[in-house]
Amino acid sequence: MNVEKNEALRVLIENKSKRFALRFYSAQAVHGGNPEDLVTFETIIPRGTMVATYTHLPEMKMPVDKIIREEWKNIAYIKMEDEVICERSQYGGQMSRISPKAFEQSQYEEAVESELTAQARGREVVLSEDTQEMAGSIMKGYAQYYKDYRKGLSENN
């Protein structure tokens, strides 16, 4: 299954507590050379941030959302905690899911995303009749979100 840049960005935002790495195609691949040629170093996104850097150039920092939006076609793969979650077979190809689990959302996260998207577009979200399982899943998702939120507050203090 293909991955769109907004999905990849969502995964990065929802998993800020994890370490990510991106690798770009080389200039030769972009300009007609070997379409599988990659740059030498990975771009690193440290835990708890949305800022990318390089291990060999730590003073260079770039916002991750800007990289994903502007350089999406040049990204060869994305790793989460040293596991490739999506990749392209070559420059110009579609980004494919390698780890479907990384892209899963709880019903709570889906409901929040739908609500925020609807608000931004001036629309209402119409829900089908809730089942007990859906309500339980939404409450479990909220409890996990709140636990992660409180953990983040305690780590920052």
Largest sheet: 5 strands, antiparallel
* Shape verdict: globular
How far apart lie the N and C ends? 41 Å
Secondary structural class: alpha+beta
Radius of gyration: 18 Å
**Strands, count:** 7
Report strand order across the widest sheet: 2-1-5-6-7
Describe the fold and architecture.
The structure is a single chain. With 157 residues, this protein is of the alpha+beta class. The chain is 39% helix and 16% strand. The protein is built from five helices and seven strands; from the N terminus they run αβαβββαβββαα. The chain has helices at residues 5-14, 27-30, 64-71, 107-121, 132-156; strands at 20-24, 43-45, 51-52, 62-63, 75-80, 83-87, 96-97. It has a five-stranded antiparallel β-sheet with strand order 2-1-5-6-7, covered by helices on one side. β5 and β6 (83-87) form a beta hairpin. The chain is globular and about 55 Å long. The mean pLDDT is 87.
Brief digest:
With 157 residues, the chain is an alpha+beta fold. It has helices spanning 5-14, 27-30, 64-71, 107-121, 132-156, and strands at 20-24, 43-45, 51-52, 62-63, 75-80, 83-87, 96-97. The relative contact order is 0.14.
List keywords for this structure.
5-stranded antiparallel β-sheet; 157 residues; two-stranded antiparallel sheet; alpha+beta; globular
Secondary structure blueprint with pairings:
Layout lengths: L4 H10 L5 E5 L2 H4 L12 E3 L5 E2 L9 E2 H8 L3 E6 L2 E5 L8 E2 L9 H15 L10 H25 L1
Antiparallel strand pairs: 1-2, 1-5, 3-4, 5-6, 6-7
Helix pairs in contact: 1-3, 4-5
